[in-house]
Design a protein that fits this description.
This protein is an alpha/beta fold and about 525 residues long. The chain folds into three domains: about 25-180, Rossmann fold, CATH 3.40.50; about 235-360 and about 375-405, 3-Layer(aba) Sandwich (Rossmann fold), CATH 3.40.50.12780; about 410-515, ANL, C-terminal domain (GMP Synthetase, Chain A, domain 3, 2-Layer Sandwich), CATH 3.30.300. The chain has helices at about 25-40, 60-70, 85-95, 105-110, 140-145, 180-195, 210-225, 240-245, 255-265, 290-300, 375-380, 420-425, 460-475, 500-515; strands at about 10-15, 20-25, 50-55, 75, 95-100, 120-125, 135-140, 160-165, 175-180, 200-205, 230-235, 250-255, 280-285, 305-310, 315, 330, 340, 355-360, 380, 385-395, 400-405, 410, 415, 430-440, 445-455, 485. It has a nine-stranded mixed beta sheet. β25 (about 445-455), α13 and β26 form a beta-alpha-beta unit. The longest helix is centred in the N-terminal third of the chain and has 18 residues, at about 25-40.
């Protein structure tokens, strides 16, 4: 940050209501330094964990910068998380502080669990006079008031933990993925040839804080390259997004496949002026060939797809100078970084379907799962870490996606574990058993579908479907709720009584292909 022009615009922020702010690199760094000083004076120090729950706002960038300068580990958390989700993260990480947007403090206040490590509750975006609030909440402005605009960064080592990101598991609670300070440097080196960011670009990456993808692109890739980032704090509307690209001179765009799919279906798509857009990329799940063709036809613009995980960064992609093959994931970002291997970790021949795997020596591969180092080793075969996805590679090194190798559900770029959905459903008095699986969907790639066995004497109905959906939203983040629910008599199981989600998933895929 210090090496960038302090007078250059770092961020342009716009709200759905039309509010507008911008901030230079110099002022953003000064804000981060004031906050780092305040956090240090409060008692936070290098190695502490802090859960951050913020919307798309300039202050989110300042908070992340301040934590990194102080050597504090950031726990990115979505505003959509509920008290149960937050309680697990706070307890598991032993976080000493939470920093949250003013509108979501109540979810933290609902936590009934004892959290002895949690010493500080910091509020952002309200109560600017600086007085303490009920429940022990302290406005973040209080910490910044009177602090100098300079702060000498704490000396951290390459292997020190910078980010602790929680990601869904297939059979239990979320896993804490540990990323080091060295990971951030490796990420910047790796993604440069994918995003194709240049010195005077305005870059819009639509991911929200709380997700690893926000750290990838809106945060590290924008600020690390010293360019101007555009930040839109508003709901997704296809026509609005297309107009914002023109209004703000966006040169590089990074959206989810779902956002591109919906934009591609806009009536009169070709009437929008995207002539300034040079680079458009997509990540989170495979992007349909038809969507790519639609943007090529309307704007002579090729959307380049990329693949990565919370546990790493971009692994495979259609890089800027590589010929595109429609339907392909692209090539490994560097020879040997990603490979197709069998269940023993042995690389497979071209055309053979196997596991997408990351070489364990890749600098941007995560360190470990927090407090559970054995779990990473369980997914290592030979020299490779298995991602859980399956694909094949052709003779020229292009990867072709085949699907998930486990029960994880990816919907609109969100990664959802079936356990979290099933656990919420089982708390409803009407549910005897249930299973959540990925069901193909034209817009979202996949949706969560729940198969539910009701208790004796209870009949399934459209009203009960809505009741169960609302029930899930009260127990866990709303994006995890089952968009479809089917009532069935029995769930398919193995001889040992384990639910065969794969059988239900394959049934959904066959039904989708039949149309």
């Amino acid at each position: 940050m210090e090496r960038h022009d302090p007078d250059k615009i770092a961020l342009k922020w716009r709200s759905e209501q039309g509010e507008y702010e911008e901030i230079t690199y110099g002022k953003l760094l000064a804000m981060a330094n004031q906050l780092a000083g305040g956090l240090s004076e409060l008692g936070l120090q290098s190695g502490d964990r802090v859960l951050v729950m913020m919307p798309r706002h300039i202050m989110a960038y300042a908070i992340y910068l301040a934590c990194l300068k102080l050597g504090v580990t950031i726990i990115p958390s979505s505003e959509m998380l509920r008290a149960k989700d937050l309680a697990y993260r706070l307890r598991h990480s032993e976080a000493r502080a939470v920093v949250v947007w003013h509108s979501v403090t109540e979810e933290v206040d609902k936590i009934g669990d004892d959290l002895p490590a949690l010493n500080f509750r910091l509020l952002v975006g309200s109560n600017k006079h600086g007085e303490a609030l009920p429940g022990g909440w302290v406005p973040i402005e209080t910490l910044m008031n009177g602090q100098p605009e300079t702060f000498e960064a704490v000396q951290t080592r390459r292997e020190d933990m910078a980010v602790l990101a929680y990601t869904s598991g297939t059979t239990g609670n979320p896993k804490g993925v540990m990323h080091s300070h060295g990971w951030g440097y490796a990420h910047l080196r790796i993604t440069r040839s994918w995003l194709d960011i240049r010195e005077n670009d305005v870059v819009w990456a639509t991911a929200a804080p709380g997700w690893q993808k926000w750290i990838w692109s809106p945060f590290l890739s924008v600020l690390g390259n010293g360019v101007t980032g555009f930040v839109y704090h508003g709901s997704f509307q296809a026509e609005r997004y297309l107009e914002l690209i023109r209004q703000h001179g966006i040169r590089v765009l990074c959206c989810t496949p779902t956002e591109y799919r919906i934009m591609s279906k806009t009536d009169g798509l070709e009437r929008y002026d995207l002539s300034g857009l040079r680079s458009a990329v997509s990540a989170g799940e495979p992007l349909n060939q038809e969507v790519i063709r639609k943007f090529q036809s309307a704007f002579d613009l090729t959307i380049r797809d990329g693949y990565g995980q919370t546990e790493s960064t971009l692994l495979i992609g259609n890089l800027k100078d590589t010929p595109l093959r429609l339907g392909s994931m692209g090539k490994a970002i560097s020879p040997g970084v990603a490979e197709i291997v069998d269940d023993g970790g042995v690389p497979l021949s071209a055309g053979v379907v196997g596991n997408i795997a990351v070489h364990v020596d890749m600098p941007a591969l995560f360190q470990s799962y927090y407090l559970d180092p054995e779990r990473k080793e369980q997914n290592v075969r030979g020299s490779y870490f298995l991602t859980g996805d399956r694909a094949h590679k052709d003779e020229e090194g292009y990867f072709w996606y085949e699907g998930r190798g486990d029960d994880i559900i990816i919907s609109s770029g969100y990664t959802i574990g079936p356990f979290e959905v099933e656990e919420a459903l089982m708390k409803h008095d009407a549910v005897k058993e249930c299973a959540a699986v990925a069901s193909p969907d034209e817009l979202r790639g996949h949706i969560v579908k729940a198969f539910v066995v009701l208790k004796e004497g209870i009949q399934g109905s459209a009203e009960l479907v809505k009741e169960l959906q609302a029930h899930v939203k009260t127990w866990t983040a709303p994006y995890k709720y089952p968009r479809q629910i089917e009532f069935i008599e029995d769930l398919p199981k193995t001889n040992t009584g384990k639910i065969r989600r794969v059988e239900l998933r394959e049934r959904e895929e066959r039904a989708f292909r039949r149309g």
